[in-house]
Design brief:
single chain, mainly alpha
Length: 332
């Protein structure tokens, strides 16, 4: 390893990006080439720095130890990343990012929208407030200084004071039937995961359809994934079924079952999500939009849970076998 490579690897170590193997390789190189230490680290105590880096502490704990070590030695390390110096990962900094971006969104909205009559000025004030609150929530969702659920309640607490909506309208939005429907779906998914019902359903489907043949095994997993996905989200369904599928793949080395099985689980989870209103969020959004169109006279009537299943379930029954035939085509 050349000094330039060691220099680059040291940067990764001090930024917390290096693996344990890379750290050990750098330490071994420094022990074998003691004369290169000054050139690599600019006379900084590499033994102390790498000793900190090789500990199991990661993230903020590692940066704190590294910064304290540098302060004691009184030397400046050019390899410490900007994020470490500015402490962009500090909770206070992540918390302050939200109001700053919200203020920028408020100013940008005021600048982009033109003021007109009194009604236009009132709408501009509401639009600016909504943009600021939306930016605040998005930044805090991404940065994570507060729990996601707590951030989601910010509009409920702020909009009445800003004159955007009153309390009754906000409460009705938070308790919309669509929100309650998805809440029930999430509770059902969590309870199924807690009691192991998803595993029992998947294994039962595979056992019923037959697992001796590779093609039938893929079909069993696809049927199980579609059935579970009708009542839980597509992503959760895949995460539930994937461990069992990986165990089957591990026991079936040398066969071509891995690709059809994994793709079949993904495809059938997406197909099964169309079977019920709680299978995937777009279904509920479509139902809500249909209610709006009914109120405007563009549709004769709205459709409920049974109406959706009466249309969605036949689609699932047709598409899952078609996807299975396509994935398992050819010789096995």
């Amino acid at each position: 390893m050349t000094p330039e490579e060691a220099n680059s690897l040291l940067t990764r170590v001090l930024d917390g990006l290096a693996t344990v193997e890379e750290k050990a390789r750098l330490l071994a190189w420094l022990e074998e080439n003691p004369g290169e230490r000054g050139e690599v680290a600019e006379q900084i105590s590499l033994d102390g720095l790498l000793g900190v880096a090789l500990e199991k502490d990661t993230g903020t704990a590692f940066h704190d130890k590294l910064s304290s070590r540098l302060a004691v030695e009184g030397k400046r390390n050019i390899f410490v990343s900007i994020s470490t110096v500015l402490r962009l990962d500090h909770p206070a900094v992540r918390l302050a990012q939200g109001p700053l971006i919200a203020a920028l969104a408020w100013l940008l909205t005021r600048w982009l929208l033109q003021e007109g009559d009194e009604a236009g000025i009132a709408n501009l004030a509401k639009a600016s407030a909504v943009a600021a609150v939306m930016a605040l929530c998005v930044v805090w969702w991404i940065a994570g200084p507060l729990p996601v659920g707590a951030v989601s309640l910010i509009p409920l607490a702020v909009f009445p004071f800003l004159g955007v909506m009153d309390e009754s309208q906000l409460a009705a939005s938070y308790c919309h039937p669509l929100v309650v429907l998805f809440l029930c779906g999430f509770m059902l998914s969590k309870s199924m995961e807690h009691c192991g019902g998803h595993r029992r359903l998947a294994l039962g489907m595979v056992r019923m359809i037959g697992g001796a043949d590779g093609k039938r095994l893929v079909l069993g997993f696809m049927v199980a994934s579609a059935a579970i996905s009708m009542w839980t989200s597509n992503t959760v369904t895949v995460l539930m079924v994937l461990p069992a599928a990986l165990a089957v793949i591990d026991q079936s080395r040398g066969t071509r079952i891995s690709t059809p099985l994994l793709l079949g689980i993904a495809y059938s989870a997406a197909i099964g999500g169309m079977g019920s209103p709680v299978g995937t969020p777009p279904n509920g959004i479509l139902i809500a939009q249909a209610d709006i169109l009914v109120s405007q006279g563009h549709l004769p009537r709205s459709f409920g849970f049974i109406d959706w299943i009466s249309v969605g379930l036949p689609v699932v029954i047709v598409l899952v076998p078609l996807a299975w035939l396509w994935l398992t085509r050819g010789p096995w």
